[in-house]
């Protein structure tokens, strides 16, 4: 049985409409996927910035720790000019250890402390890392909204700092490598930073 021209035209129009709908659907799905990916990327970048700022705060906290304003504290003796007291293998253990986070320099082929230290473990003190504010009293809010999921932490390695022409009879200036880790609002987001800090020997007669 032959189809009339009007029926053939209607069938062709229906096919055309179906192709147009499929094309629109593909474009809509692509746009939605791109929007979701952009939102996910923005969320990841924001989380990375939170972790970065936390790691920077930990570096600053480590510098305050090194400067140790209370000369009577056990911690202050470990940062005295030319002192290597407390700096050893393992970086100390436990929050009550005044040598917590202080790591001796590992000569090659041994692995440096900043690589071997378990900075990401939940119980930082048990693995030789110093949680933010442990020795300085500083406080960082954590765990809610856009705050870090947990406090950042750091370790301090004693490094050699020989300088030509310096009086060998004088205490050497202390030179440290600080490694800090910060966490984003999601614990899986981490940023690790390093800095070097030289604690100069006070001039003779200067205030200490």
UniProtKB/TrEMBL annotation:
Domain of life: Bacteria
Domain (Type 4 fimbrial biogenesis protein PilX N-terminal): residue spans on this chain: 11-60
Domain PilX/PilW C-terminal: 107-199
Name assigned to this protein: Pilus assembly protein
Taxonomic classification: Bacteria, Pseudomonadati, Pseudomonadota, Betaproteobacteria, Burkholderiales
């Amino acid at each position: 049985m032959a189809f009339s021209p009007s029926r053939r035209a209607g069938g062709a129009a229906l096919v055309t409409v179906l192709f147009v709908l499929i094309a629109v659907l593909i474009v809509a799905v692509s746009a939605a996927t791109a929007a979701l990916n952009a939102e996910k990327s923005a969320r990841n970048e924001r989380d990375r910035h939170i972790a970065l700022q936390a790691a920077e705060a930990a570096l600053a906290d480590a510098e305050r720790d090194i400067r140790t304003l209370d000369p009577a504290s056990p911690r202050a003796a470990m940062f005295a000019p030319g002192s290597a007291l407390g700096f050893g293998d393992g970086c100390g253990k436990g929050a009550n250890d005044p040598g917590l986070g202080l790591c001796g320099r590992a000569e090659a082929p041994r692995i440096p402390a900043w690589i071997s230290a378990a900075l990401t473990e939940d119980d930082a003190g048990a693995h030789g890392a110093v949680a933010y504010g442990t020795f300085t009293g500083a406080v960082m809010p954590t765990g809610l909204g856009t705050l870090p999921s947990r406090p950042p932490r750091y370790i301090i390695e004693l490094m050699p700092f020989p300088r030509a022409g310096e009086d060998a009879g004088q205490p050497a200036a202390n030179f440290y490598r600080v490694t800090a880790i910060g966490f984003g609002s999601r614990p899986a987001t981490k940023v690790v930073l390093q800095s070097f800090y030289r604690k100069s020997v006070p001039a003779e007669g200067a205030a200490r």
